[in-house]
Every structure is written in structure tokens, then in C-alpha cells.
Design goal:
Blueprint (H helix, E strand, L loop, with lengths): L9 E4 L2 E4 L1 E7 L12 H17 L6 E14 L12 E15 L4 E13 L2 E10 H4 L3 H7 L3
Antiparallel strand pairs: 1-2, 3-7, 4-5, 5-6, 6-7
């Protein structure tokens, strides 16, 4: 299965399933810009996905705090995001984000995520997915995301 955000696919990475989140859907009157990295729905999506990955591993680790949220890049979608796209269903722009997670076990983790403006015919939606150094250290997709590819 492809690691592309188009069509809201599921991706399997290092034994855990990470579901892409749909944050919003609006008519495509004009291009939509993905929300800021600090957007409440974005941060909530990261918390839900990360804690869900921990639950799949049957651990009790949860995010205690998300801090140092920052945007690392904003621009056109990488070619890899649209390699299977067509003229009516494609990712336009992507906002890349990073934060430090403080976990309830006293450890910390770094999480990377993207917020992508996906156009699907006459609608725009925001797609979110994440990876972390704890869950995806050896995952080549996560390494590409850290480099905005």
C-alpha cells in the first residue's frame, strides 16, 4: 500500500497502524491553506494518533504534554505525495511541523507531522499524519518527512 495521503489511506509502519486524520472539508472555491501547526485540532490529532499507536503496542505510555510546537517548512506538496494523483484529486500544499512530547513515563519523544491541503474534485480537505522517533526511527517514510519529501 502506498504512503501517499491521497484518498486517506492507512499506512503500516514498524508494526503499528497509523490512520490519517481528516481535519476539515470545505468547498473548493479557492485554495485552502492547511491550518497552523499550533491549531488545536492539529495538536489533538497528533495526541490521538500517538496515544493510539501506544495502545496498539499495549503500553500505558501517554502524552503528558506537547511543547515546542513549530513549523519546519511550508510549500508545494512533494512529488511523492502526488505520484498517483490525477487532475481532480491531488495534494496542493503541505505544512510540516515538529514538537517535543513529554510522556507520562518521564521520557520524551520528538514527533513530526504534516498538514496537507488535499483537493478532491470540488472540495478541499486537510489531511494529517505523523511519525515519531520512538515509533518510526527506522522508517524511511518518516526520514523523508523530516526532510520535507
Amino acid at each position: 500500500m502506498s504512503d501517499q495521503p491521497c484518498s486517506l489511506m492507512l499506512r503500516i509502519a514498524t508494526g503499528s497502524v497509523l490512520a490519517l486524520s481528516l481535519l476539515s472539508v470545505v468547498p473548493a472555491q479557492a485554495q485552502q491553506f492547511p491550518p497552523n501547526c499550533t491549531d488545536e485540532a492539529s495538536v489533538h490529532g497528533i495526541r490521538s494518533q500517538y496515544n493510539g499507536s501506544e495502545e496498539l503496542k499495549q503500553t500505558t505510555t501517554k502524552i503528558k504534554e506537547i511543547k515546542d510546537v513549530k513549523e519546519t517548512y511550508y510549500g508545494p506538496a512533494p512529488k511523492s505525495f502526488n505520484q498517483y494523483a490525477n487532475s481532480t484529486d491531488r495534494v496542493l500544499n503541505v505544512r510540516w511541523c515538529q514538537a517535543t512530547l513529554l510522556l507520562n513515563d518521564g521520557q520524551s519523544d520528538t514527533v513530526y507531522w504534516f498538514l496537507a491541503d488535499e483537493q478532491q474534485r470540488d472540495r478541499h480537505s486537510t489531511v494529517l499524519d505523523h511519525c515519531s522517533t520512538k515509533h518510526n526511527l527506522m522508517d524511511t517514510t518518516c526520514a523523508q518527512w523530516r526532510e520535507h519529501r
